[in-house]
Amino acid sequence: GHLYCRHGCSACASACPHGVPVSTVMRYASYFQHQGREKVAMQKYARLTGRDGSLCLTCDGPCLGACPHRFPIQAGLVRAHSLLVLA
């Protein structure tokens, strides 16, 4: 369905002007949410500094509509960012 980002798909990758690796970020969010691997997910995500979901907070969203499966890319990355960083 449209609520799941297919890991390794990368169909939307060229739509991101910041080069955020969408599939990778969403895989880390899956580690955190569904596999109980919170620490691993957060450590891996921290290594993406400069290419993480924080860039989506102020982006005009050229990725919207880029997913052939209708996954809401920008919203998914913002949600993943909130999970994977210490506030």
Mean pLDDT: 94
Q: Could you estimate the helical fraction of the residues in percent? A: 25-40%
Low-pLDDT stretches: none
Question: Main beta sheet, described?
Answer: none
What is the rounded Rg? 12 Å
Structural class: mainly alpha
Oligomer state equals single chain
Question: Helical element count?
Answer: 3
Q: How much strand? A: under 5%
Terminal Cα span = 30 Å
- Gross geometry: globular
How many distinct beta strands? Answer: 0
The succession of helices and strands, N to C, reads HHH
Itemize the secondary structure elements and their pairings:
Elements: H1 22-34, H2 38-46, H3 73-84
Task: Describe the structure in your own words.
Helix 1 packs antiparallel against helix 2 (38-46) and helix 1 (22-34) crosses helix 3 (73-84). Helix content is 39%, strand content 0%. The chain has helices at 22-34, 38-46, 73-84. It is an all-alpha fold and 87 residues long.
Concise account of the structure shown:
By secondary structure, the chain is mainly α. Helix content is 39%, strand content 0%.
List keywords for this structure.
3 helices; single chain; mainly alpha
